[in-house]
Design goal:
With about 675 residues, the chain is an alpha+beta fold. Helices cover about 25% and strands about 20% of the residues.
Length: about 675
Amino acid sequence: MEQTSRHLPMVERDEWLAPVEGELLRRRERYLNHMKDIEASAGNIVDYANGYRYFGWQWDDDLDGWWFREWLPGAYDVYLFGDFNNWQRTELRLSKDAAGVWSIFLPAAMYGDRLTHGSLYKIHVHGDNGWLDRIPAYATRVVQDDKTKDYTAQFWNPGPFDWKGDCFDIAQVGSLLIYEAHVGMAQEREGVGTYREFTEKILPIIKRDGYNAVQLMAIAEHPYYGSFGYHVSSFFAPTSRCGTPEELKELIRRAHEMGLAVIMDLVHAHYVKNLNEGINELDGTDHLYSLPGEAGYQPYWDSKLFDYGKREVQHFLLSNVKYWLDEFHFDGYRFDGVTSMIYHHHGYVDFDCRERFFDSGVNTDALCYLTLANRLIHDFRPTAVTIAEDVSGMPGMCIPIDDGGVGFDYRLGMAIPDFWIKLLKDIPDEQWNIWEMWSVMTNRLPEVKTVAYAESHDQALVGDKTIAFRLMDKEMYFHMDRASENFIIDRGMALHMMIRLMTISTGGQAYLNFMGNEFGHPEWIDFPREGNGWSYAHARRLWSLSRNGLLRYSWLGAFDKAMLRLVKRYNVLGDGYAWNQQMDEQNKTMVFSHGRLLFVFNWHPTASIPDYELQVQGPGRYVPILSTDEKRFGGPERQSMDVEHLSTPVVCDDGQTRHHIRIYNTSRTATVYLRKR
């Protein structure tokens, strides 16, 4: 058990936090008090987070039968019914205990041949909102009727899954190269892809491309496919539209065999407000999992908020955190919507001063919950990875808990894609400010690990544009064949590669890409809806484009593979900050280094400069090993890749001797040189 200290280590390392140390100490005290209560009741937080082993269906060896339990403190009556009792709603009444837990025991002698694997069931709840048929909160499988479209819980008891031999450790993969993916839209055919298809077809692509982690979206059950999985209804049930829980487990086991980590996009920021499918008003009140009234509503997402200060809600969410790690062997989480969680205003303010992070707008209950969640994750799976999607920059988010922080391993570098979009959308190429570019890419505290990305699923959604589509737009429909000559396509191809190389080499300690964007997937994502005639045409990935040797998409894909190989071979992400060697605003050229690698970016649209002199990190021979201008990536290869550049000492204005080389600095090109002694 941690002990409070007089001064927090995170404050000792950052004087900017000294004026608010009192509030940071109060937050830590709140966390320690919760941990004290947890340890008093269960010994430790890992054993505390076992709700999935108590609620729902649980087999009792001693009594030879099944218990069913659900927490519904505000309900007046609760009944269990399903196909095993001919859907008789009021036949099997549950009993309520002092904690508001309703339970019933079904002996195998009476129900063994009726309550079988695959049986359908619901609970019939009498509360302040009337008599309603509901799906239990701890249901581990929920299925939709093809005709009525009604969702029903399913009794799922297939026997234990064989995890034998699955000893995968995410710490073994090195710097994270994350492939963000959506199982349902991962297939080329129109329709919903399955776990099995993803295992057989998509995992090999991810492995072959050079990524070492898969981040899976939309895993927990959600009634509306078009929500991208962010309006969760059943938190313990993998979405059945993609297959069975065992097929998801097989996906993860196979990924581990291939050396791929699997990270889950975890949605604990809110839940769907639907009564028929979700947990909203499950006991008849509006304050079961939420605060009452408007305080429990997320107006920007039209969904419900969790009451993170209620112990039973904390227990539910912590049990959910452990469940996916324990039962499915996920290797960590990306926590979605953290900014919405930790502020009562959900982040819709300007974070223009220190006080914004410590005033009454902060949801300290949510911060406490996130700290508990990180403690649980790292106690249960010490090497598991947690990533916070927080755009506000809350101090301490990625600082260890023992130092006074919330305990996340990484933050998403959300300012990076926003910067690229603004640059491409609003500023002509010749006016790009390379100092601003450098500042955005490197603006992070040394101890805060960042997942850098140029774009994610957010930019691919209908209404927005991917980088490729923003660069090349309608020309992609007509001129992506290799025989075409088109200035817009040439510019777009070059900048697509340069932006990615700049992001991965300066933006953080890990890298993320959304599936298909690596090869410039055209158009947008648009899930089936009334407005598009319920079409799946834009809810899939056209992998064949990347394999077509007559199209330019394969060039972009080839560059992505080469870029990842270079980053891994020379440990670019693990090297820390890039070392700025030279900034030439007039020629839009920036030069920086990582170890033995020298990166030269010429962002100028037209200025190609022969015999260009630039500073390098030390004496040696500098050999180009990767360039966005190479023929193998569709470029004209204006600079030979076989030429060695021998450094020469130069006495600078400050009297110091530095080493320089001369190159042909071609426009709109990024080149990486390897220093040889």
